[in-house]
Amino acid sequence: MNAFDDTESLITVRDWLRFAVSRFNEAKLFFGHGSDNAFDEAAYLILHTLHLPPDRLDPFLDASLTHAESEQVRAVLERRVRERLPAAYLTHEAWLAGHRFYVDERVIVPRSFIAELLQDRLAPWVEDTDAVGDVLDLCTGSGCLAVLAALAFPSARVDAVDLSKDALAVAARNVADYGLGSRIELLESDLFAALGGRRYDVIVSNPPYVDAEAVATLPPEYRAEPALALGSGDDGLDATRRILAAAGDHLKPGGLLVVEIGHNRDALEAAYPALPFTWLDTEGGGQFVFMLRHEDLPDQSAPGSTTV
Question: What domains, with CATH codes, occur in the chain?
């Protein structure tokens, strides 16, 4: 018998929360798109479905649900178990650095450590935020980092680049939601290919960085995301190599390149022993995001070189 067919005895938010945690654990769901455990994810899905504040569970635990509300909660919990979709695809929202963004299956669920750094306006590496006039977000996806960059640097115009037309459609919705259409330009481009001679004070990127071995063993929740946004060659560094090869041509003197690379720090340092990577501290640790200045990068504008 399907456990979701026998829910008539579930009356309160507390009842549904207990039921959901049990079903999530029973199904061995994977959590990594905003929460890391069954309880938090169940609470989020229930509160969102009931149009209740996402951070106010306790006052509503003993509230009774109407029949219609119970059916709505049952449906979303069952989809989470049956389809193994990330919660963000069920609610069409994701939270990053305290900001809400629209998401759906056309984009990866936002979860970049760079958001935390932008919240701090890249301090202390950027001394004068008003002096940042041009920012590039490579592999923008949902546009979340582009939006956060525009908020962090109020004098900047931001180019947000992605290879996927579908992703750019989602990004356009988020840019519009934040009223930033006059400051953020969305561009379809394979990394730097369509940018011509544009140069930037800051380039940020959360590119694909999952290696082939890890891609082959991803849980269903990650396989529900666009493959284009996850894998990047055998060692996960294909996109990062291309960024490093061309970024110097698109940074202004003194400009910063900030790139997230997942768990690939050792492989990256081994591949580029001459580059003076600065590893930025985040809540996850100091091994996921590197920074380089324009002067640290190879100059690809010399005769015979190729800009990617």
Answer: 3-91 (1.10.8), 107-296 (3.40.50.150)
CA 172 and chain centroid, separation: 16
Percent of the chain with pLDDT over 70: 96
Amino acid letter for position 285:
G
Instruction: Indicate the Cα dihedral angle 27, 28, 30, 31, nearest 10°.
Output: 90
- CB count within 10 Å of CB 64 equals 10
Mean pLDDT of the chain: 93
First to last CA, the chain: 56
306 has a pLDDT exceeding 80: no
Averaged pLDDT for residues 125-133: 95
Which alpha helices (DSSP H) does 84-179 contain, by range? 87-91, 114-119, 144-152, 165-177
Please enumerate, as own/partner, the contacts of 88-95 that have beta carbons within 8 Å and a separation of 24 or more. 88/33, 88/34, 89/224, 90/45, 91/44, 91/45, 91/48, 91/49, 93/48, 94/33, 94/34, 94/142, 94/144, 95/34, 95/54
